[in-house]
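Q: Hi! First time doing this. I have a protein sequence and I read that you can turn it into a structure. Is that right? Here it is:
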Amino acid sequence: MLSSGCAPVLLAGGWAIAAVLEGPAYDPVSQTISVLAAYGAAGFWVMTGGLLALGACHLLTALGLRPAALAGRVALAGGGAATLGVALVPAPSSGGSLRHGFIAGAGFALLAVWPVLAADRRRDTPWGLRPAPSLAATALMTVGAAWFLLELHRHGAPGVAERVVTCIQSLWPFVVVASCVRHADDDRPVV
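A: Yes, that's right. Below is the predicted 3D structure, encoded as structure tokens:
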């Protein structure tokens, strides 16, 4: 519960504090989170720390989420490792980076597919691991990632799209863990 619950707080807290440190030069609508973690950014250490902590949270959640199918746990751990990679291979202060973009893209993909890979078709499965909610979460994250790419390509509002999809990706593990805890509580015998 702790690692999955901290993930969205660390992500949003990291970008909020780093944006304040960056000041009015940073535009959260048109600029990505990676700009906040770029070398030379005023709050790069905050955003980099937030990304490192987020990656660690995903790794710990994947390790402890025993009711999920192994393929989903591996994908979630891979998404956590990619998040660590995004922090360790920051985007340059201006322009793009193929390495950073590749790692970020791999992370987006792994975090989008983990829910459907973690799903379990058994009747007594916790809600967050059932096929329908898992497929819906994967579809929502995939649509969010496509929206981000569209906004990035047309120089629109990639910052908004990225924040929406990363919030969903960081929040879904908590939803799954909470449903597993609730399911376990429902299965306890009444004394």
